C-alpha cells in the first residue's frame, strides 16, 4: 500500500540548509499498525506530514519517493494529491483545539471530507457523520453533532477528530501524538478505539509518539528515529525486548518502571 524510499527533507529557510529527515524508508501493508517513535525534533512528524502530502512546497527540498498505491505523493499534481487527502489518507493531530474550527459546529466539521470528495446529499452526510460519532463511542451523537468544540472535553474532541478522519473510510490513518494531551485513562481508551477501527475496517495506522509504552501496546512494527535518521526498526516486541541501538536502549530505560511491570 505504502512505500517510502530514501526520503530526505531539507529546510532552506535559514542561511545554512538543515536536513531534518535523512534516507527514511518505510513499507506498510493494508491493515498494518506501525509505530514511529523518537524525541521531539527527531523527524518523525516531518516524515508523517510528507506521507500525508502536507509539507509546504516552498522553503524546503524533498528527495526520494513516497508511493501510495502507485501514486508518487512527493511529485504528483496537486489535484491528484487532494483527491487522496481526507479520503484515502487521513491524519489525526495532537491537539484537536488547534485543528477544529471554534466557530463551526461538530457536525459540519466531521462531514467536511464528504463535502470535498463526494456529491452526497446533506441528509446522507449527516447520517454518516452521526454514524462516525457513534463509532468513536461518543455518547449522544445527535447532541454532539450540534455542539461547538469548546463545549466538549479534550478526550471527546479527540474522538471527534478521529470520527472526521475515518468518515470516508481511509486506507491509511496517520496519528501524530494523538494521546499526548490526554490523561492516562483517556489515552488507554483512544488506543482501544484505534485497535477497533483497525480491525473493523482493515485501516492501516501509522502511530507517531515519543511514548514507547503506548507504541508497544498498539503497534506490530516500530521505527525509532533520532536526529532525522531511523536508528532501529523491526517487530515491536523484538525491538523492545532486545534493542540494538544505544538510543533505543535509552528510550526504553526512560519508561516508568510501573509500565514495564504492567507489560511483563
Descriptive keywords:
10 strands, 264 residues, 13 helices, globular, disordered C terminus, alpha/beta
How does this structure look, described?
With 264 residues, the chain is α/β, with parallel strands linked by helices. Helix content is 41%, strand content 25%. The model is unreliable at 258-262 (pLDDT under 50).
List the secondary-structure elements in sequence, H or E. EEEHEEHEHHHHHHEHEHEEHHH
Helix and strand content put the structural class at alpha/beta
Strand content: 15-25%
Global outline: globular
- Percent of residues in helices comes to 40-55%
Low-pLDDT runs of 5+ residues are: 258-262
Radius of gyration over all CA atoms, rounded: 19 Å
- Average pLDDT level: 89
- In DSSP terms, counting alpha (H) and pi (I) runs of 4 or more, how many helices? 13
N- to C-terminal distance: 33 Å
What order do the helices and strands come in, and which of them pair?
Layout: E1 2-11, E2 18-28, E3 33-37, H1 44-51, E4 60-68, E5 71-72, H2 78-84, E6 89-92, H3 96-99, H4 106-110, H5 112-117, H6 122-135, H7 141-145, H8 154-166, E7 172-176, H9 184-201, E8 204-209, H10 212-218, E9 221-226, E10 229-235, H11 236-241, H12 246-253, H13 257-263
Parallel strand pairs: 3-8, 3-9, 6-7, 7-8
Antiparallel strand pairs: 1-2, 1-4, 4-5, 9-10
Helix pairs in contact: 6-8, 8-9
Précis, in short:
The protein is an alpha/beta fold and 264 residues long.
